[in-house]
Amino acid sequence: TTGHVQTANYPADKLQFAGRWYDSNDGKVNGYGQHVTARFTGSDQVGIFMTASPTYSQSGLYFDYKIDDGEWQREKISNGSPHMLASGLDRHQNHTVTFGRSNEASDGTFTFTDWALDSGLTSLMLDRPLLYEAIGVSITAGFMSECNAQTHGGCSTTGVATTNVYKTYVRHLADHWLT
Length: 179
Fold this sequence. Notes:
Number of helices: 2
Largest sheet: 10 strands, antiparallel
Number of strands: 10
Helix content: under 10%
Structural class: mainly beta
Order of helices and strands: EEEEEEEEEEHH
């Protein structure tokens, strides 16, 4: 059964932040950054406490997340915490969750506050010896990667809806290297 979802007060030494993050009074702010990853057991659901920058607090930004070896999922999220990502997880198994913004840094920041997990969870160390980060231009950031020129006749709009860093060679290479 689903337990009480709470702020996990997840230990910082068991989180992995990829990209450029800085501390604020509200949490870790993602400027030019990519994602945050955690590994846990003892919870059958997972969500995130976060806020988007004021520019996109109403309209939202696009975020991608992956749980265990599942496919990357993409959602448009504005403010409102917690934002639940999955339920029905086996609370006796270890789970890994990765969450990050799929838009370019010029589209604003988001602040990670904590994970939303069941009470009674156990946070685990990540066993990822390699961390791959790439810094580049719009191609690296996934500019217009949500477009398909052959089936949609090209992109008619640009911006947060057509940008997705999780559909770039960078993400495919990182997945291949299991980072």
